[in-house]
Write a structure and sequence with these properties.
Ribokinase-like, Bifunctional NAD(P)H-hydrate repair enzyme, potassium, elongated, Rossmann fold, UDP-N-acetylmuramoyl-L-alanine:D-glutamate ligase, 21 helices, seven-stranded parallel beta sheet, single chain, alpha/beta, 493 residues, ATP binding, ten-stranded mixed beta sheet
């Protein structure tokens, strides 16, 4: 497989265009279906060698056509195969021709009675499904899931919207999914990702140039996307050459979040990190900081004085900050500087988000917003409430409006830039959902900005490293553990 196809994500509409472009270029579409069906059959034999019976559920479209090919190949291999169709495919279509070459028993989908020992090959609907499943199909899906029968899905588990990852009434809970050429959003966005089981991407022979021409700047977040932007340490490097990150602290009873963020920034490669503390919290911070420096900042005049020093190269504001009025005032001072805004820093602008967006309009993108869904809805209520939008659509729309890189957090974090580029992160383990982990993420991204990485790459690298540190730390981690498992940038090149 072409290396770029390993990271490309295409929507169902784009995949339909790719299929058409392949056919228009002279590629035999029947041959593509044959390869796809054979790949499904091979996965079934490899994954379920002890199956008592393979039950193929076939829809009337090309997904069903892949199922007919798989059924034929499995029968030729000596397996017990039964096929149940939702509706017959059109006779002259590729699926119709594939069905004509299958000589086993074919029953109506409503006649199938799930039985223990069956392995279900779901070839009903592919990634292009965009409407709720019919009630009879929903009922069958629920019965199969309830018996915990192993399901191998063709392209995407039936019932999962390939564009949004959402379940459309009901969806198969597959243990294995075989898709073709590249991933679709539904394979990566929740809950679709959890319904796919183990995902296998098979190259059926469409040239990479056709796939690349149809893709629109959507990728999986992997080091290959941003590694060229990572700073390289020279032999003559000194601490200021690695950037100076400043993290704003909250009051005396809310200092821990800023220290977590600052310590993460130091571990993530910033040459110097300073906690900017209100005077009343100075003693609490001083008692816990060693390599991270401390400076007291009490209001806008003091911040303006600090900003006269150009060596402060990036800022993090929000974790545990608390004072929303002061947050807005500080952001106004920082409008020309690279800034990660999280937590209370985002909430501070919920009543007038346009003030934040206008402050960072124009010039190079220098603002990174890291909201979870609740914080996102405070800044972008209309975008958040639009049920027609996928998580990718929401992040992209917000990035354009805010002139910022959006890190829309979750198990399926999406990173989006104002120019339309977007990444879906897939390396975050479930145990990363722990108190303080977002503070750590802000510090990592801040460290990257301090080292002069572009905002989109800084955010993408930060999200990936955050997930990788959690994977290495293992279940039961705390935010402090997460910081300890952050390693030098060189390991991720």
């Amino acid at each position: 497989m072409h290396r770029e196809l390993e990271t490309i994500v295409v929507t169902p509409e784009e995949m339909a265009g790719i299929d058409k472009a392949a056919a228009d270029s002279g590629i035999d579409s029947e041959a593509l279906m044959e390869r796809a069906g054979r790949a499904v059959a091979a996965a079934a034999l490899r994954r379920f060698p002890g199956a008592l019976r393979f039950v193929v559920l076939a829809g009337p479209g090309n997904n069903g056509g892949d199922g007919y090919v798989a059924a034929r190949v499995l029968a030729e291999a000596g397996c017990a195969v039964s096929l149940y169709q939702l509706a017959p495919p059109r006779g002259r279509s590729d699926a119709g021709k594939a069905s004509a070459r299958f000589f086993g028993s074919v029953g109506s989908l409503t006649a199938y009675v799930p039985a223990i020992g069956d392995v279900v090959i779901d070839a009903l609907f592919g990634a292009g499904l965009s409407r709720n499943l019919d009630p009879a199909v929903c009922d069958l899906v629920v019965r199969i899931n309830g018996l915990a029968l192993p399901v191998l899905a063709v392209d995407l588990p039936s019932g999962v919207d390939g564009r949004t990852g959402q379940a459309l009434g009901a969806a198969f809970e597959a243990v294995h999914t075989v898709t073709f050429m590249c991933r679709k959003p539904g394979h990566l966005l929740m809950p679709g990702r959890s319904l796919c089981g183990e995902l296998e991407v098979f190259d059926i022979g469409i040239p990479a140039r056709i796939v690349l021409a149809a893709s629109h700047h959507l990728r999986v977040n992997v080091p290959a996307v941003w590694s060229m932007s990572l700073p390289k340490a020279a032999a003559s490097a000194h601490k200021y050459g690695h950037g100076h990150l400043a993290v704003f602290s909250g009051g005396p009873l809310a200092t821990g979040a800023a220290r977590l963020s600052a310590t993460a920034g130091l571990h993530a490669g910033a040459g110097l990190v300073t906690v900017l503390s209100p005077p009343k919290a100075g003693a609490a911070n001083a008692a816990h900081l060693t390599a991270v420096m401390l400076r007291e900042i009490d209001g806008v005049p003091a911040l303006d004085g600090l900003l006269a020093d150009p060596r402060y190269s990036a800022f993090v504001l929000g974790p545990g900050f608390g004072d929303l009025d002061r947050a807005r005032a500080y952001v106004a001072c920082l409008r020309e500087r690279p800034l990660v805004l999280d937590a209370d820093g985002i909430t501070a602008f919920r009543d007038r988000p346009e003030a934040l967006f206008e402050a960072f309009d124009g010039g190079q993108t220098r603002l990174v917003l890291t909201p979870h869904d609740g914080e996102f809805s405070r800044l972008f209520p209309d975008i958040a409430s639009d049920a027609a939008l996928s998580k990718i659509d929401r992040a992209r729309a917000a990035a354009v409006r805010s002139h910022a890189v959006i890190v829309l957090k979750g198990a399926d974090t999406v990173i989006a830039a104002p120019d339309g580029r977007a990444l879906i992160n897939d390396n975050a383990p479930p145990w990363l959902a722990t108190a303080g982990s977002g503070d750590v993420l802000s510090g990592i991204i801040g460290a990257h900005l301090a080292q002069d990485m572009p905002a989109f790459e800084a955010a993408a690298a930060g999200v990936w490293r955050h997930g990788e540190a959690a994977r290495r730390a293992g279940p039961g981690l705390t935010a402090e553990d997460l910081v300890d498992f952050l390693k030098g940038i060189a390991e991720f090149e």
